[in-house]
Amino acid sequence: MTPQDFDTLVRNRRSVRGFLPRPVPDTVIDAAFESALWAPSNCNVQPWSVHLVSGERLRDLGRALTARAASGAAAPDVPMDTAYTGLYRERQIASAKALYGAMGIARDDKQGRVDAFLRNLDAFGAPHAAFVFLPEGFGTREAADLGGFVQTVMLALTAHGVGSVAQGALSLYPEAVRAHLGLDEGAQLMCAIAFGYEDPAHPANAARTERAPLASILTRHAP
Ligand SMILES: Cc1cc2nc3c(=O)[nH]c(=O)nc-3n(C[C@H](O)[C@H](O)[C@H](O)COP(=O)(O)O)c2cc1C
Fold first, then answer.
1. CATH number corresponding to 16-80+120-209
2. 55 forms bridges with which residues in the sheet?
3. Amino acid 216: pLDDT
4. CA 15 to ligand 1 centroid distance, Å
5. Which residues contact 71 (CB under 8 A, 6 or more apart)?
6. What 3-state class would DSSP assign to 167?
7. Whether the Cβ atoms of residue 188 and residue 89 lie closer than 8 Å to each other
8. Distance 221 CA to ligand 1 centre (A)
9. pLDDT of the residue at 133
10. Which residues contact 34 (CB under 8 A, 6 or more apart)?
């Protein structure tokens, strides 16, 4: 692989939010997660565990999460309460604009936006979702390890021609996920990765995001 090949792979990964129902072969799924095992982590503690949910079981879970969302406030294991301001708020708005714009949902179409959000809870109709957990008591430092793990899974899936999207939204109702999967309390649900073959006709998949220029984030100090 050349450096250019790597850059192309990284740029080819983008969030996919509309999937064909065709399942991804187990061999491909295993290969992607095997690659991600090689993500770095603090002291090599490898603080990730994954529950993979597929097919009708995932649709059932989606219905349970949608019902749960209608019945009360979210209670994620890891709080999701950062209020983005300034530059970060501008970027948040730009990414929402790209997505809702691609889907033809107007800014004042509140119901359209709610419906678009609720698609999250059904993993955007993906044939698979990997729920990613952090061990009990682990904090921000180890959560950073999960970021590398999740990105490696998504890059590997991209290399296999499989689309994906990381989803914090699937961690909003962890007790419903645990109940559905028969899991004990303890491990913290961080996010999920919905994945499958991209539906090129789905309007959400026309959304494209931008990135800030390198100079805005990289400060070089004199040697
Ligand atoms: C940890 C994490 C959680 C995310 N949660 C969601 C989510 O709940 N719903 C969603 O539609 N996109 C979610 N995203 C996708 C981001 O919106 C997306 O990565 C960002 O807008 C950049 O776009 P790109 O992935 O197409 O490059 C999440 C991404 C990450 C890394």
1. 3.40.109.10
2. none
3. 96
4. 6
5. none
6. strand
7. no
8. 32
9. 98
10. none
| Predicted pLDDT of residue 82 | 94
Nearest CA owner, ligand 1 atom 7: 167
**Type of residue found at 156:** A
Enter the pTM of the model: 0.98
Residue 50 pairs in a beta bridge with 132
Give the Cβ contact number of residue 66 at 10 Å: 17
Copy the structure tokens of residue 138.
């682990």
Mean pLDDT of 143-147: 98
Average pLDDT over residues 202-212: 98
Q: Is the CB of 148 under 6 A from ligand 1?
A: no
Tell me, in angstroms, the distance from the centre of ligand 1 to residue 17's CA.
Answer: 10
- What are the pLDDT digits (tens) for 17-26? 999 999 999 9
48 vs 145: CA distance, rounded Å: 8
CA-CA distance, 14 to 9, in Å (whole number)? 10
Beta-carbon-side half-sphere exposure of residue 203 (alpha carbons within 13 Å) = 9
**How far is it, in rounded angstroms, from Cα 156 to Cα 154?**
5
Q: How is residue 39 written in tokens?
A: 């993500």
Sketch the domain layout of the chain as residue ranges. 16-80+120-209
